[in-house]
Amino acid sequence: MRDNFEVRDQDAAGRLGELTVPRAGVTVETPALLPVVNPNLLTVEPARLESEFGAEILITNSYIVRNDDDLRERAEREGLHEMLGFEGAIMTDSGSFQLAEYGEIDTTTREILAFQREIGSDVGTPVDVPTPPDASRERAEADLETTAEALADAATVDVGDMLVNAPVQGATYPDLRERAGREAAATDFDVFPVGAVVPMLNAYRYDDMVDAVAAAKRGLDADCPVHLFGAGHPMMFALAVALGCDLFDSAAYALYARDGRYLTVSGTEHLDDLEYLPCSCPICHEYDPAGLRAADGDERERLLAEHNLHVTFEEMRRVKGAIRDGDLLELVEQRARSHPAMLDGYRALLDHAPQLEREDHASKGTFFAVSHESARRPEVRRHQDRLDRLAVPDRLLLSEYGAPSGHGYDEVWRVVPPFGPFPRALSETYPLTAETPDRTDAAAERAAAEGVAALVAANPDADVTLAHDGWHGDALALVPTSVTLEDLSALGERNESP
Ligand SMILES: [Zn+2]
Which residue ranges are tagged as binding site for Zn(2+)? Predict the structure, then answer.
């Protein structure tokens, strides 16, 4: 059991939790955003990140500090907290990024971890090897071995009460990600960054990111806090949290600002293209686009960075609220509409519905069926997996609209796309309290037909009739031939819903 991370609430595989950081003497609420602070260039002062934006933890790079004489001397003398002016928790990276970028670095895991401890880091990082997406399998395996050696080296370092990251690599090979996750979880380390996803995110490969994280999560334990390393665009927080990511870091707020780019929860705009600011943060309240454009370079960069931070922290609060309210997947659905690549990410998430379903808890906010994809949500699957527990009478009518008077059935159950059949007594039970559109689509009907098929498979001797409201042929084709079909729309019957 890892005693520094506690899950308080859950929705899909997303968690509201608490990461205890003993060296900083703070508890960080997760999911959390760690602003990336470049010690050479404080776009927004760390003290302001804390007081104005609510940052409880930030991340900076110990390799940059170590390799700059002034910074190193100050960090060794004052410690990172004093040097940066930040009282929350500080995580440090090790130079792995520089290793990936330039092919070599002049430090080792043992040395850089000892240095991180010395300068007062609260969460340190060994030198892992980020393998880019689509690298050869041979390379990905060789890199994993090097990362495993780095973890073994890290285990020999006296880190005191500094927490230590155990990175999970494996490029785009799900089995390698899963194995790396299992090996990382087997260590005594504390936080689990899923690495080298930035190239996927930059290329809008959200579906590949989802597959990589889902694989890593299969290897990790439920009590492992997971950091989606390098992911800082608010557009994808809901998706990544729903997968079970707990920590995010954002360099995006500052990097994008430098390029004149303005973040929103549905994408990135260029300041030059904006005629209106779709935001109510203090910056957007005070300025209009022309005012921002007229600011001089450094000032404009700072103003944009502050807006970017506001919108980023705001989205993280929204995600936390959604977990609390049990409607995280509804938020994921909304965000999935912002870009086709995000929709691919959501669809990839639904490919992992059985994995999500294992972590999901039973009762949440009202299920809103608002898209084709809703039919593939884990709650639909869970309902259908449990149909074999229900007692089925000899003669059963499944009806979308009530029952004919004077019928001879033993029982009449409801059938609601996308869930399928259930006894009326369960109507007030989650997720069957769902709000569904009156104008059902084929995907929901197919899912409901699969529910009918599951019920019949568990009760092959029952005499089942399905009264449906003009379902599409491909949905009806999924209903077992033993079921008697009645098309209510053909009868012109639209009774009150039972
Ligand atoms: Zn704003």
Answer: 279, 281, 284
